[in-house]
Amino acid sequence: QVQLVESGGGLVQAGGSLGLSCAASGSIFSIDAMGWYRQAPGKQRESVAVIGAGGSTNYADSVKGRFTISRDNAKNTVYLQMNSLKPEDTAVYYCNAHIVAGLRLNNYWGQGTQVTVSS
To answer: 106's torsion region: left (phi>0), alpha (psi -120 to 50) or beta?
Structure first.
């Protein structure tokens, strides 16, 4: 069984910084893309940042220049460093990974972690 366990998040004032991490564990053969998504109250879940197996990255326009996604393949972990946070960044943040386990490629989600930015 594959699990994604997130840590980080919390409450921060506007302009502050937070870091998120997400570790994948279980019977993993390989991990392809990993990413972070977020869902604010009353809104659809949206992509924040994605990183490929080779390190290529893609960011939502709203976070470019403020957020940085990275990964440690040896630890099966993806990170999201969030700087210059704004109240509109408030949301539940979810980790996502495309993982090959048991000879199948599946899409996995973390449990979500709350990020709240006060004005």
So the answer is: beta
